[in-house]
Fold these 4 entries.
Entry 1:
Amino acid sequence: MVQASPPDAENPAPSRRKGGSPRSGRPTDDSAGNDSEEGRTKALGERSIELARYYRGKIETVPKVPVRSLDDFSLWYTPGIAAVSRAIHADPASAFDLTGRWNTIAIVTDGSRILGLGDLGPEAALPVMEGKALLFKYLGGVDAIPIPIRVSSPEEIVETVLRIAPAFGGINLEDISSPKCFYVLEELQARLPIPIWHDDQLGTAAATVAGLLNALTLTGRSIGTLRTVLLGAGAANLATARLLLALGHDPHRLSLVDQKGVLHAERDDVDELMVRNRWKYRLALSTDGGGRKGSLADAVREADVLLAASTPGPHVVKPEWIRSMARDPIVFALANPTPEIWPSVAREAGAAVVATGRSDFPNQVNNSLIFPGVFRGVLDARAKSIPEEIVLAAAKALAGHARERGLTADHLLPTMEETHVFPYVAAAVASRCVELGIAGVRKSNSEFLAEAKERMARPAEVAELLMRSKFTRPMPEAAGKEPRKR
Amino acid sequence: MNPKGSEPRGHETQHPETAGAPVHLRPAEGADVPTLVSLLIRLKRLNEEFDPLLKVRPDAEAKAKEVLASDLKNPSALVVAVEGTGVDAGKVVGVVRAHIRERLFYTPEQEGVILDIYLLPLFRRKGVGEYVLAETTRLLKERGAGIVTAEFPVQNAIAVRFYAKRGFRPITALHARSV
């Protein structure tokens, strides 16, 4: 299967052994950017291993009910609990009221696309899924259970999730390679009456669209007349393309470009795509190259927007391509760990707005801005599904909050520091679920907001309490090559 | 030289299901050969996706040219160029290649075998394929076929569904192994 890699897939950045000293701060040019980033990533990796060995896991189950004496177990467990079991047998939906199902999701992966590292298998996926579970809890107040599974086909992923679904109020698919992730998501969405989400597609796409909507406002554009080029046709960009079309983007002004050039209906590999990646095939037909053929250089000429989610840069997107774009071009270079072009270089070439996937540049497009609010929202509304409208509602809510703080070329999106925004995203999502008639719980926006605020704040308070009381063991000093003196 | 009964006609008005992307069928000519070769090669490359025993040989293009040249002279062969209309007028967007064969032991005695049928992707949905198949069936029937068959890779689920919907069912199977 030949196709452009999603960000940080398959083509990890060439390893450089220059060993730049770990430092933070904004890389301003090519070499500085690379050296500091390489060095910093290495140092963080070493520290992560140290801490993984020390803490041996990042989440644990903790009782949430009082246990005054062992007698209480006759309420929490047998014989008392039999009545609860019978009640759920009589009305399965009551599991959402009588157990933790309402707030519990599974993080399911087959380990086939772990970060930028490729197919490392389910065991190696566990630390990443534990980390994701930590984010889900800390940012979204959601109890998330890491479930890496050993499977040999996409059908087996679907089968496995169908079988474990009774325990969960939602499913987050994670780090599953493209194109099977499309099949798995579509199939589970059709077959399960709970929200199913694939963060690498929907989370990234929603964050991208949120940033783009504000970039359009900043540069005085509207989506209906936009010419957009998407570089990379992996999970994220295919989902982004679908969202843009749902927002009213003209398909014939939208060009998807991968390693083989502009994706159009008569490209040589289109029949192969029909068989192996029907999602990409459909976009090949509906966009038909956005009226262009050839290479990225051909597609990007006079384009308003370039959304790159392809392979790590910094020389994947050339400055002259940006110079050939329309006035005040918008450039998103989202590959990790290194954007397709350094923001400073893109700016010099005329880009009016630049976003990347990194927190050390302005305008980080980060799916962590989206998924906590989405899951808080769909769980609180007890939604049956997460249709495209919900993804767009989350994107619009996020964009709206950045506008409230004041939009500049360096502030397109809230940063990860601005966690107070998340409950608003959650409430927007929950309210939209009610409007669409897919909510099992009907409340007003302000009720959803109050609930989300409380549920999203609690984990940080609990964590703080546990740290202060030292029930969470204090962070050990870094070992490193130059041990610090105590 | 050209198969009879396949004069160019404006079918689209009689077939509302092709309204989205109308096409019309006409007998192929010598001048069509380069385009038809490229369409046939696309089809063979698609077949390649379904089974390693359908790997396209390096000289497939030359072979396609030869077989088209010979079919165009063969009275029991049918080669149809599918042409676009409207903005795509005059553009060949698909090909059909079929033979009339005698069935030695069975009746009906004349079989119209659809060997190749290919439409460019943008001309696939909207009932175009259905229309092309119906027209091809009509042309084969005019030439005496009492049964129409179609050959395609058994793993091609899209083709299986397409033909099944139009009343086709498997009657013989071709099983293969490499030796």
Entry 2:
Amino acid sequence: MAIVDKKLSIRNRNKILVGVWQDEDNLVAAATALTHAGIHIHDIYTPYPVHGLDRIINARRSKLARIAFFFALIGLTLMTTMIWYMSVYDWPMNVGNKPLRFTPSWSPVMFEGTVLCTAFGMSFFFFWRNRLVHGIKNELLDIRQTDDRLIVAIETTADMDEKAILTMMKKNGAIELRSFHKGVQTILK
Amino acid sequence: MIHDSILRDRLVTGDKTPSDVTRDILRPILNNPSKSWKIGFTLSVIFLGIFGISLLNTLWNGIGVWNINKSVMWGWDITNFVFWIGIGHAGTLISAVLLLFRQKWRMSINRSAEAMTIFAVICAAMFPVFHMGRVWVGYWALPLPNAFGSLWVNFNSPLLWDVFAISTYFSVSLLFWYIGLIPDIATIRDKVSSKVGKAMYGFFSMGWTGSTRTWARYELISLILAGLSTPLVLSVHTIVSTDFATSLVPGWHTTIFPPYFVAGAIFSGFGMVASLLVVARKVMNYENYITIGHLDAMCKIIMVTGSIVGIAYLTEFFIAWYSGNEYEQYAFANRAFGPYWWAYWSMMSCNLIAPQVFWFRWARTTPWFIFIMSIVVNVGMWFERFVIIVTSLHRDYLPSSWVMYSGSLTEVGLFLGTFGIFFTFFFLFAKFLPVINMSEIKSIMRNRE
């Protein structure tokens, strides 16, 4: 299966400089140094979450919490409407002469429906936002990035000094340097 | 500022590197099944067969083959239902509640506990579904239009709340488990050599690359799902307890039931997690990941929740006397000194007295002893549900309806059979998916505060 959005594929981007790290402290130091030098880091790939990296590469804050609240409101509205329609409007049922409308006994079902809608709505949003799709072709810069290597990817532009970037990466503990352009990988000294 | 902790014991021992973690945890997945796995799996399938035969007998002859009657209309079936649903609660507690409390020791055990939740809920669902008798019209429990044959469902009934609560709990737990699995499935995808394996793990890894942006959102969604799952797990067993508490049966009609049931669920769930992990860490060589420290922490939770349950037992007894209600007083006197005294005292000794041994450090740090105690806890919790259900129903307001009840062979077969379902799923899980969350373990290896 193809990539969902071809523009996002690393194959269709400019030349990418790749640095490989083994130590997370060195990686954090390198990412900080590169960003301070005004270099835009395309992304960092790690086998486990490294806290603070998203702030270092200036990733935008996720809207997931607001999305969750939005789906919670939808869930609550749907469930309230459903119960009202079934047990008040369409077929009012007298159960032991208890009140028909908005009784506390509605709250468990309203709550469960709200949680269900929030969890699934938010998760599908999460999958969509991260382009996580069943069967999608994965694009790895290094097969070990899901095992024990930490990878920094920098997309080059015409005004970038590639040599200076590579030197900076090496100085900050990169154990391997590579470039990636149109599907061809070159190992750099 | 990040500090390396010098006060806390390391959560992963043996000076492991991230690649060691991958290698150790993926060993059972990437290699052929071990002899112990084959033996365990075969035994599970045999028990699954027992379930199949018992279920066939139930479906063919009707639930008349169970010994339930018009007084004890809930017997082994609902006992087993509450038993399994209770076991399912520890998974969510470990993955959600302990995540919210930032308890990092949960990371070695959350994956298997979440799997246990899902399998236990499947086992639990079997009982109310087949207790319906005419299971083919089971869909009447869903809110379907009157034209389908039933009336709209009754939203005042706790039994309907159960339908919503358990299905939501199952779905959200499965989602939480799957999202947690995606990074590890991606690791297997990049390690496995067979074509089929690559295709399967590739399909389920959803193109995961480990991008920083994805990790940031992943951590946020885990936190929000944990925030949602925490009230959810409390609601599910609260609703199960209202199946009893909203009725007028002596011994059931008490407001203490919701917290008492939730504490009991966590207690029995941790009992099952301890049983599984004490064996898994030995058989799968995970001693460096599921350390004595983890077992120690689990035992402390077992002891605390066991004590909460014990206090609930005593409070129930006191309130029955204090209420001045003779039916309530009789129900409790009958529990302790009536014909089912042996069940009551088994429950008291297994749930209240036995876990007190965990005050001693030796007991909390000796795996074989923890294994025995975890079985004791589960036996005790099964008896708790049996006592609540059977002793209250067999003698209520009308002495002419008093009867004795014991499970039939088919009922016993169904219960033993659900262990077949549970362990068959668990063995398949241990063979094809990582029992320990690799990505989370890699993030805590440095023991940072």
Entry 3:
Amino acid sequence: MQDIRKHAQGAAGPTLSIRNLTVSFAGRRQLVQAVKNVSLDIWPGEIVGIIGESGSGKTMTALSAIRLLPHKAQVEGTIHLGERDVLSYTEKQMRALRGDRIAMIPQDAMQSLNPSMRIGRQVGEPIELHRKDSASRIKTRVRELLASVKIGDTDQRMQEYPHQFSGGMQQRAMIAMGLALDPELIIADEPTTALDVTVQAEVLRLLREIRDNTGTSIAFITHELGIVAELCDWVYVMNKGEVVEQGCVDQIFNDPQADYTRMLLDATPSIHGPRDEVPNV
Amino acid sequence: MSEPLIDIKNVSKEFGGGLFSRLAPFKAVSDISLSVARNQTMGIVGESGSGKSTLLRMVLRLIQPTSGEITINGQNVWALKGGQLKAFRRQVQPVFQNPASSFNPRHSIQSILTAPLEVHGIGTPAERRDRAVELLERVGLDPAMRHRLPHQFSGGQKQRIAIARAVILGPTVVLADEPTSALDVSVQAQVLKLFSDIKDDLGLTTIFVSHNLAVIRQVSDRVAVMQHGRLVEEGPVDDIFDNPGNDYTRNLIAAVPDPAFARRNRAGTAVHPVSPA
């Protein structure tokens, strides 16, 4: 499977490559391993789903790529973003990467947006921080970005504050901010969990469009199998800190190998009624 | 349909818009009529702000309707007084989304479970304890854990305890508001199974509110779809899901990401349809 994937992506290396990652925390009596010996790759232009239930280590794995783990975390293994050895970077070097080469879309946009900063300024902030662009050029870019995430009436919207946006619009603004500097990798951590299904469908469609148009890689963390089925190209299934299975979406859903994946599939209620009634194509 | 047990007639709820308010009242629920037959589960599905929880709370007698009538077993819920009201509180029980916030954090599970019995003056302390033990076993928890506090249980275990508490008085109606939304799918599957089993065993009539269409499909006999406080459509669950008669329902169903999607639509496509830009 790995070979098929590499072949499909051409000769260039993966955008993100994690090898033997272990993240542990010192507990009262022993070391608690939140992530155990995880290896995963995200190739250019790929949407990779990292799926698992709470406590599976999916968020910890993704956060380690952007080095946002709690200070107490002990990290072993290697993480490469392109050629960069992320774990050897200083905090200053990391700050240059975050928001520029790697963007993060969080679960709760309202919590992540600054309530007292206008949307326009906020979406342009990564450009302001990372590039020495003129105010007017930043403004033009922000307009483009908002249009690309389908926020209409941009001049008016740029003047507004986050609370004037609906949940779906806030999440779009976060995505626009993430896109500001054409990152190589977007880490989306359950970005649609707080949204209604119809709004969620729009946001998912948008993410796919962005991938198609910009060729950026997306790591999509979720607990929902349905989203993975519709959005992702490749899937890592995590349980209790370990990757229990990986594969392309067809394989994971049609021919799951790990017991845990099978259990997860069986446990997920389907909108098409009981699972055994789902037509098996 | 047999004689309805729960009958909701032209019920509306407006918030705000009082004598001194400059704003027009907000209609959270407008003119809803629904009835639930004995031993049936009515699923109410809708997005946030659709009024589904407000409707459920009106049936629970927690929010008073602005207009309309709700009857359970022929009795007008909002006209009950004294002993009749107390009997209603025995007969109709809620299960909420977040059990952690509906338990007293400083009470043991045993006292949480026996409290309804005490309030209604049922049994001696020993009998009440036995009943709590029996129900803990019924919901699949070790009765030896009954002296523990709520925070010592996982989310799924807490929801099992909430179900045990809801049925300890032997109710006829259980009203559940998003009882599995906070749970992992594997735990959700167990809690839904428990809910259905208990419902069948005790012959309960239930209303199950959720934003999750797949969950609604699994637990309900009939389903009511709500949007902006209105009833969009109502009918047997398979009819509504397989042949929605309304555009909103169709869109809602189409928007649900479904694991079966991969089986149906992806089979036969290229292994890796991505081309790097």
Entry 4:
Amino acid sequence: MAVVTLSRADRALQRAAEDAQRSRRSWAVSVWLGRLCLLVVLIGGWELAADQHLLDPTFTSKPSAIARAWWQLAASGSLWHHTQYTLTEFAVGFALGALLGVVAACLLTLSDLPYRVLEPYLLALYGIPKLALGPLIVLWFGVGLLPKIVLAAMMTFFLVYMNTVVGIRSTSGDMVNVMRVMGATRWDLYRRLVLPHALPYTLTALRLTIPIAIVGAILGEFLGATGGLGYLIYEQVTFLAVDKMMAAIATLAAIVLVFRLLLLPLERWVNRHDKAIGGNG
Amino acid sequence: MEALAHREHVLERAVDEHRRRGRRDFWTLYLSRLALLLVFLLAWQVLSGVLLDPYFFSRPSLIWDQVVLLVQSGRFADNVLLTVEEAFFGYLLGAATATVAAAVLGLLPRAYAIVEPFLLAVYSIPSVAIGPLLIVWLGIGINSKVVLAAYFVFFVVFMNGVSGVRSVPRGWIDVARVMGAGRGQLVTKIILRGAAPHLMTGLRTSVPQAVIGAIVGEFISSQRGIGFLISDASARYNTAGVFAAISILSLLVLVMAILLNGLSRLGARRTG
Amino acid sequence: MARVTANGRGDAAPRAAVVELVSVYKAFVAGGTRQAKLALEDVSLSVPRGEFWSIIGPSGCGKSTILNLIAGLSAPTDGTVLYDGRVVRGVNTDVGYVTQDDNLLPWRTLQANVELALELRGVPAAQRAERSRELIGRVGLSGFERHYPAELSGGMRKRASIIRTLIYETPVILMDEPFGPLDAQTRLVLQDDLLRLWERSRRTILFVTHDLVEAIALSDRVVVMSAAPGRIKRVYDVGIPRPRDVFHIHGAPGFSLVYDRLWADISDEIAVSRRRRAGDAVEAPEAVES
């Protein structure tokens, strides 16, 4: 007896689904159109304004010139040469800072007294603008890779340390008690409760420190270097080569973006158990 | 009667125990902290010239001499004031533009969705990297530092502001609508008001960023300011001078943090 | 039907006590003050092996404090806490603890959560899986083994948290308002589950609740505590025959008699604590219970 008439309820459901899809689609279309328009207006407007000398091309350059400069730098191999410097400084400093940050957080939370003794000093060190230490670091470590690595590591260390401590300290006291009653040792507590709980906090810190670790490396390059994207940018000031500066800046932004995108799947995997809570995390 | 006496006894014991532990904690804590600081400074002072190369590490007494020298020669006030000025105007510029941008884009979700990738791209530019560009555009005077400081401040305030606008519960808006609030009232009385705590966080945490922006600008190119003091001393291999300038800067940041803490505690009751 | 005894030691405990509190006092110093507050005053209890006891009383009467003392998570200010005849010193790993929040580890699947205690005790994986599967099945959670807590309903999480404690077969289980945050229907179903699980193994349970009906439906005895400082006001022998039907417990013989007497006691205490709270609301309204 399958009469092919939709009940009113079915029809309502269908209409709701269609409406939702339509509004989603129209939203997506308008957003993407808007983005496209904005891109065209920005790039085209810049280009035109520079051509018509509404903007002084010596100072603002223009998109086509920047693209050309980028291509020349890339073709001559100098872009890759400088990128290698910056990447090495960043990668080594970031890894070092992150590792030290996590280890320090674990050690200092093991027992209460050392933590409370050291806390004000760590906060004071945290309060010192680390970038301001740049010249001192250069004075100490010269103009090679080392001072940049140290700067990148310092920029990474504190945030990773702070966030990991917050993570460790936010472990539920109830759960600690439950596990102690179950017979858990201190090592059990760290391995099975405290560290897994703190991991998302650490990962958030890692994501946030990627750009600032690169900032540390670049400042180091400004203060004295023989290579690196920061050095490349700094060098152009005397030549007023805005196109090359912009090309190098764009490359830096791309590096930051790539690293953040690389961390995303890791974060998603660590937080995989949260999927029922909502996909926007 | 006896039960009551026993109760008193138990309470006394708890207070005693608490007091004893509290006192012990207090002394171990503060004495250890103080001892650590003294040992550190003393070791630095004594070991400098023995284990530590004074050329690289200087020593506390020399650093103190440098600070005194800076203050007496009048260079202290001159340079500190310039950096504070750069940071102040940079903060105003960055915070104001970021607040307006966050309010507008927070209220217009479609517009926000459109500009989001552009913002992400700009956000990915390491803040320091645009320093030299600003020098080219605005010269080595105060303007380039103000704008760099503003750039350091902008994203912190903007991100917090947007998340503030988005955090306003749908229920508040519905309630206000049912009460007959117009669009303007909705924006001013509910949405911006509800976003205030988040925005305040951004406005507070970005203050040191303004100082850092100014300092970094001075590193890149300048003839005055705390950043100049640091890089100049460093270029002359005057380690004590570098430490002295960094100490002054740290003190400046600390004073600002304390002031801000007081202010935000005052404001916390009103912004919720 | 409902016998009333003056205190827990009452009518010459027929079976050996597994948990015993002898004239226990517990005082706390509230944070930031120099004032001590008495949470427990002269509490004596003697819980025989294999019985189901409930503790009820107004909030802040130190019910949870009693559980923490038995678990060895805190020490009495005066008096003695005995477990199996020995004085409890340090964490007591012979008891299982079910807290009010389910406290499941969000990054572990249901099965991994249930197996946690066995894992800590070094039980091989195959054996762990066998035992956890059996228990998971018994509370009707089969098929959800690989789900994370965030994907389970409140009632399911609660079941998981209970079998997580049952799995390592401690002689005594402490439950601190385990069904507190659940809705009324889910509560009933879980009470039924708990009774079935308990009737199979007959371990000793100390169950803190503020729900009268729940206490009567589940327990052999109900301990009524007075408002702060917590004292034992009376211990009721419920006496409703087992197996019980929690869904129709109101109709069980003797129910209304116990209920009325319990309610009379409790309502007195609630009135006292409310008066007192109104009195020193300005001073320190926070309960001293830890």
